[in-house]
Amino acid sequence: MKQAIELNINGDTHEILVSPNNTLLEVLRDKLGLMGTKRGCDLGACGACTVLINGDAYLSCIMLAVDAIGKEILTIEGLDEGGDLHPLQRSFVENGGLQCGFCTPGMILTAKAILGEEKHPTEEVIKRKMAGNLCRCTGYKKIFEAVMSVTEQSGKEF
Amino acid sequence: MEKELNVVGARLPMMDAAQKVKGTALFTDDLILPGMLFGKILRSPVPHAKILNIDTSRAEKLPGVKGVVTGRDIPDRKYGIVPMAKDEYALAKDKVRYIGDDVAAVCAIDPEIAEEAVELIKVDYEELPAVFDPLEAKREGAPEIHAGIKNNTSFAIRKEFGDVRKAFAECDAIFEDTFYSQPVNHAPLEPHAALAQFDPLNGELTIWSSTQIPFFLRRNLSNTLQIPESKVRVVKPKVGGGFGQKIDLYAKDFCAAWFAIQLGKPVKFVYEREEVFISTRQRHPMYITVKTGMKKDGIILAQKFQAHADGGAYNSTAPTMIALSCYFLMIPYRVPNLIYEGYHVYTNKPVGGAMRGHGIPQARFAVERQLDMIAERLGLDAAEVRIKNSIHAGEPHPAKFIINTCGFSDSVKKAADAIGWKEKRGKLPLGRGVGLAGASFPSGVSNMSHISSGAVVQLGRDGAVNVLSGAADIGQGAETVISQIVAEELGVPIEDIRITAADTGITPLDPGTFGSGVTVRAGNAARLAVISVKQKLFNFIADKLEANVADLVAKDRNIFVKGSPEKGMTLSEALKSYQYADLPMPIVGRGSWMAPATEPTTLFKEDGNFAPSYSFMTQAAEVDVDLHTGKVKLLRMVTAHDCGRAINPMLVEGQLEGSVVGGMGQALYEDVIVEKGQVMNPSFLDYGFPTFLEMPEIEAIEVETDDPIGPFGAKEAGEGTQLSPAPAIVNAIYDAIGVNFMELPITPEKILDALEEKKNRKNSRSDQCISHC
Fold first, then answer.
1. Which domain holds residue B216?
2. How far is the alpha carbon of B12 from chain A, nearest alpha carbon, in Å?
């Protein structure tokens, strides 16, 4: 049986009819057209579907939509600030931290979650916490540099 | 070679980078059309069988199902990316040849119903004996996979260059070794997808597809659907990586189009990750035996090379792959006498296809490994051997390649210096080692029918530059590079360029993204087009300025007389006066470009200059081998690459870094494990390609040459660097632990087994312990 739920996504409240087994990814993409969240494996193994829930990184392809009720969901569409790129987004652009762009939203949101936990994570922490986000194009180096360059800008709030 | 350049050579972000970071870049699966239906493919559960009957009645009756199609419903038209090698139907007609072969498709109002309907199709199979190894498949009496293909060998070439028998007789030492290179999946992050729409009023089909080859896809769809090419429009949205895997027509393309035509509604197919692993393409597994004859000083006199490629169930790019692995044995080293025997053999397994390097990485693994082994046996320095045998620009080539520029020996020296070769090779403690390997790759393909690119540049009244290019940007940044070339030539910033690319209904012909030829081919076409625009404008301005056309320069949105910047006008003024002179706007320039080929070749039959130019590169690796766990860590990889002049150094670095990490995956981690035709690890959880944690330190060194053919001297940068990371790493492992591995990948199990065996051998001779030796 479908049921109506309310989800808070990027600051807006959406009322959506879902089945209990609908994943958050299905709701975001197929019901709300928020296509920035990508489906790469549907198995929680590639990180392309990463969203933030109350600031923490979650894999939306293995999370039920109903489990996100009452929480603040942030997708890549909600990250920029009044049309201006978020510092992480800008850093990915300027440092060439992307190629095909398919993993990019998930990479950026995971990086945001890391920087939300600690302002100046070590290189090892970044590598370990981003290891769940796969990229087949870049070899990770420029993505890593893009994230590092943001952590080096002191005093910023993310 | 110093040219003053502003936009070419700049580290510019990709033009669509902001879209990608904002999540607004649209890939095929992100597209939605009103009334869209969803498709799903039924795949074979058996490796080899006759299809006796397909009962689709239960699926058809399921509420929400709008159509079912099987092989017997579709036109009797085979497809294939290489015309001479067509051996595949969009849906199997009478036989399935591997687990995952496309059998039938359904189309329904939502993906869940489509999935349920697929399971309601009942197929009666008569199972046939299957064969899973190319050496067995080639034997007399092996199961016949394709009717009439003897010994399952769909392509075989034997080539001889020079006088091999005589050359071997003159050698001081001859070595023969056998190697194996494993199957690797491209694993682009974006699963393959297609969305088709048909307009019954004018009979036009539009298909959005995750493809590297829009124009080849158009041709294959036209051929298999039996509708004119002019009625098929292929649009390439953003493509989430390809690496060669998206060079083909797949069932999802055909079936989306088929249902769209039948039902008059848009239809979308998206492959699951498992389907990408099983039913698309992979790097050919290959058995290779190489015999090399040398003089005492390490000069290669002759080679004999025998390769058996495991093609899986179909040909895909078979002839090209075999030809490449043959001809690129004679570059970057001088091999004056060569016998090559190559076989593409069918097995009941997933299909081999083009993957970054395309037949060459397997050959390089064998040759570069063997060169190290020979150097060791002859007491020579492995880097020196490579420098000594390096080919040089302008040298005659046994297969008639024309080498205009060549930075190979430089690349060996630079890579060796950067990795600390002299201080480290053979001198590091047990478990640490350095190794290197070289390679060369074509910048596209010279003259293989219809391999040419077109471009149109339009300059409007407001100075906006509109570029139409057929080139397929699959994430490497082709659109940005082409725009940089146009901007440079017209003297405007890249912000003034708008590019529309890879839409067969709008943009000029282009063969697509393969063979690392986009920058040279499509870049040259765009350059010719913008030069034509510039000439039209210059011809007009020259009169106004009372100057010679040849003396005019376009720079910083100005046009002026060379050496006298005050004698000129802004581009905007120039366009205004052009318009007020009642000359037609927009100013349009067209360009078409094909590599010059005095001796055109496909390499299938005759020799000749295969590519407009060749890149050269050396990779040098430093590894740490954990003697207790067997894990190998690639600490550092230096890659010295002669890619001519980099149009965009940041994008070039990205290509090199991605290639290195992909090559590391092939060396250490990746293997499509197949048991009795069943892929055992078709997911990212089980397949395990490199993550952030495995990322090595990477140093990219530019070895710049100024190529006369490429736009602004550019050569390829996308593929060559994936040829030799694997042998460089395996050579470094030898330096670390003294074990010669001949089969990829080098897993911890293999390391531990080898160390154990080494220890036992030593123990049987003496009491020495491995940790002390």
1. 34-128+192-270
2. 8
In a 3-state reduction of DSSP, which class is residue B714? strand
Cα B690 to Cα B95, B189, B267, B618: the distances in Å are: 37, 13, 35, 21
Helix (H) / strand (E) containing A146:
helix A141-151
Is B632 inside any structural domain?
yes
Per-residue pLDDT, A157: 55
CB contact under 8 A, B273 and A42: yes
Q: Say if B552 falls within a structural domain.
A: yes
Chain A environment of B684 (Cβ under 8 Å): 40-41, 43, 45-46, 134
* Structural domain count, chain B: 3
Residue B100 CA to residue B494 CA, distance in Å, equals 45
Give the residue among A119, A99, A42, A47 at the shortest CA–CA distance from A76. A47
Considering only CB atoms, which chain B residues are within 8 Å of A46? 189, 684
Contacts of A99 in chain B (CB under 8 A): 14, 241, 475-477, 654, 658
Instruction: Flag if B651 and A139 touch (Cβ within 8 Å).
Output: no
Per the structure, the complete domain to which residue A96 belongs is given by 87-151
- Whether residue B466 is found in the same domain as residue B399: no
- Residue B2's pLDDT band, with cuts at 50, 70 and 90, is very low
Find all residues with CB under 8 Å of B700, minimum gap 6, and list them. Answer: B639, B641, B652, B653, B656, B657
Give me the pLDDT at residue A119, please: 86
Kindly report the backbone phi and psi dihedral angles of residue A5, in degrees, each rounded to the nearest multiple of 5, phi listed first. -130, 160
Q: Is A109 contained in some domain?
A: yes
Q: What is the mean pLDDT of residues B457-479?
A: 96
Q: What is the CATH number of the domain that holds A143?
A: 1.10.150.120
Any idea which of B138-147, B158-167, B447-456 has the lowest mean pLDDT? Answer: B447-456
Looking at per-residue pLDDT, the higher value among B447 and B498 belongs to B498
Question: What's the gap in Å between the CA of B564 and the closest CA on chain A?
Answer: 35
In chain A, the number of structural domains is: 2
Residues B123 and B193: their CA atoms lie apart, in Å, by: 25
Tell me which H or E stretch contains B207.
Answer: strand B204-209
Q: Do A43 and B685 touch (CB under 8 A)?
A: yes
- Assess whether B534 and B432 both reside in one domain: no
* Cβ of residue B633 closer than 8 Å to a chain A Cβ: no
A100–B657: do the CB atoms touch at under 8 Å? no
3-state SS class at B441: strand
Give the pLDDT mean for B157-174. 96
Domain boundary among B237, B270, B303: B270
Asked if the Cβ–Cβ distance from A42 to B474 is below 8 Å, we say no
Identify the CATH number of the domain in which residue A10 sits.
3.10.20.30
Query: Residue B451: pLDDT band by 50, 70, 90 thresholds?
Result: confident
Nearest Cβ partner of A134 from B189, B476, B698? Answer: B189
CB–CB contact B240 A41 (8 Å): no
Looking at the predicted structure, is the pLDDT value of residue B766 above 60? no
Tell whether the model's pLDDT for residue B772 goes beyond 60: no
Per-residue pLDDT, B754: 97
Tell whether A157 is covered by a domain. no
Residue B26 lies in a domain: no
Instruction: Give residue for tokens 């649009």.
Output: B235
Interface test with A, best of B22, B685, B719 (most A CBs within 10 A): B22
Q: What is the ipTM of this complex?
A: 0.98
User: What mean pLDDT comes out for the span A58-81?
Assistant: 96
The answer to whether the Cβ–Cβ distance between B18 and A93 falls below 8 Å is: yes
Of all residues in chain B, what percent carry a pLDDT higher than 70? 97
Is the CB of B23 inside 8 Å of chain A's CB atoms?
yes
User: Which B positions 133-152 lie with beta carbon below 8 A of chain A?
Assistant: none
Task: Give per-residue pLDDT as tens, B575-603.
Answer: 999 999 999 999 999 999 998 876 556 67
Residue B676 in domain: yes
The DSSP line for B735-754 is HHH-----BS---HHHHHHH
pLDDT of B259-272, one tens digit each?
A: 999 999 999 999 99
- Model pLDDT, residue B74: 97
